[in-house]
Amino acid sequence: DRRVTVHDLQAATDRGERWAMLTSYDTLTAGIFERAGVKALLVGDTSGELVLGYRDTVAVTMDQLIPMVQAVVRGTRRALVVADLPFGSYQGGPEQALASAVRHLKEGGAQAVKLEGGRPALAQVRALVDAGVPVMGHLGLTPQSVHALGGTHRVQGRGDAGDSLLDDALALEQAGAFAVVLEAVPAELGRRVSDALRIPTVGIGAGPSCDAQIMVWQDLAGLTTGRAPRFVKRYAHLAQSLHAAVEQYVTEVTDAVYPDETHSYT
Ligand code: KIV
Ligand code: NA
């Protein structure tokens, strides 16, 4: 029993196999995802929104992410654990990026990190790769730039911006990234980038041609409700089933139905 490595993911991609990633922020769900066949788990800065309740991913810090990285690592034995570098933890330059990545590996126990951006982040990617840290890139919709992008529900990489994104992806591969996330771009661009790169593309709203896919687990499970981006597919409706379970519990307590004899000590 050993963990999946970035080499395993490259080998799977070289064989033409598709593989699935999911976000993960806590021990129990991490174990479930791994046993269900997810090869790599991302402790994403989306936890800032989905676990900690911030409006966007900008606020979450290294100190907040690291306990979640630890929890996911403790809850798994085989999955590759990728830790997100949050906003402000690497934009300061290669030295800052390395210090943050080292914390994710040494304190968190992650095996890789992810950061957002193309050519502007290359010096950071090179520094991490040189230090032996596997780096996943992230292009297209990059939520840490929410204020510059004017929102996070806009498709990226249409028209000429597509050529620029392809150049960014090639530059990330050249700099040594082991994979690149493509978020919210036209399917045709997802195909172009996937054809051009040797390293795996990990799509989230990037069409069916990517080598792998990632989704936010609360979206997949329907723990989030209401309007969602086009790429979200709800495979379950956890919000409803959890609501019903808790409602029944409250009723049974109120009506003195729970606890009964079977749930009491003699
Ligand atoms: O933080 C996150 O969950 C992510 C994925 C959506 C790719 O970056
Ligand atoms: Na993220």
From TrEMBL:
<feature type="binding site">
    <location>
        <position position="45"/>
    </location>
    <ligand>
        <name>Mg(2+)</name>
    </ligand>
</feature>
<comment type="function">
    <text>Catalyzes the reversible reaction in which hydroxymethyl group from 5,10-methylenetetrahydrofolate is transferred onto alpha-ketoisovalerate to form ketopantoate.</text>
</comment>
<keyword id="KW-0808">Transferase</keyword>
<dbReference type="InterPro" id="IPR040442">
    <property type="entry name" value="Pyrv_kinase-like_dom_sf"/>
</dbReference>
<feature type="binding site">
    <location>
        <position position="114"/>
    </location>
    <ligand>
        <name>3-methyl-2-oxobutanoate</name>
    </ligand>
</feature>
<keyword id="KW-0566">Pantothenate biosynthesis</keyword>
<dbReference type="GO" id="GO:0003864">
    <property type="term" value="F:3-methyl-2-oxobutanoate hydroxymethyltransferase activity"/>
</dbReference>
<feature type="active site" description="Proton acceptor">
    <location>
        <position position="183"/>
    </location>
</feature>
<comment type="subunit">
    <text>Homodecamer; pentamer of dimers.</text>
</comment>
<dbReference type="InterPro" id="IPR015813">
    <property type="entry name" value="Pyrv/PenolPyrv_kinase-like_dom"/>
</dbReference>
<dbReference type="Pfam" id="PF02548">
    <property type="entry name" value="Pantoate_transf"/>
</dbReference>
<keyword id="KW-0460">Magnesium</keyword>
<comment type="similarity">
    <text>Belongs to the PanB family.</text>
</comment>
<protein>
    <recommendedName>
        <fullName>3-methyl-2-oxobutanoate hydroxymethyltransferase</fullName>
        <ecNumber>2.1.2.11</ecNumber>
    </recommendedName>
</protein>
<keyword id="KW-0479">Metal-binding</keyword>
<feature type="binding site">
    <location>
        <position position="84"/>
    </location>
    <ligand>
        <name>Mg(2+)</name>
    </ligand>
</feature>
<comment type="pathway">
    <text>Cofactor biosynthesis; (R)-pantothenate biosynthesis; (R)-pantoate from 3-methyl-2-oxobutanoate: step 1/2.</text>
</comment>
<feature type="binding site">
    <location>
        <position position="116"/>
    </location>
    <ligand>
        <name>Mg(2+)</name>
    </ligand>
</feature>
<feature type="binding site">
    <location>
        <begin position="45"/>
        <end position="46"/>
    </location>
    <ligand>
        <name>3-methyl-2-oxobutanoate</name>
    </ligand>
</feature>
<dbReference type="InterPro" id="IPR003700">
    <property type="entry name" value="Pantoate_hydroxy_MeTrfase"/>
</dbReference>
<feature type="binding site">
    <location>
        <position position="84"/>
    </location>
    <ligand>
        <name>3-methyl-2-oxobutanoate</name>
    </ligand>
</feature>
<keyword id="KW-0963">Cytoplasm</keyword>
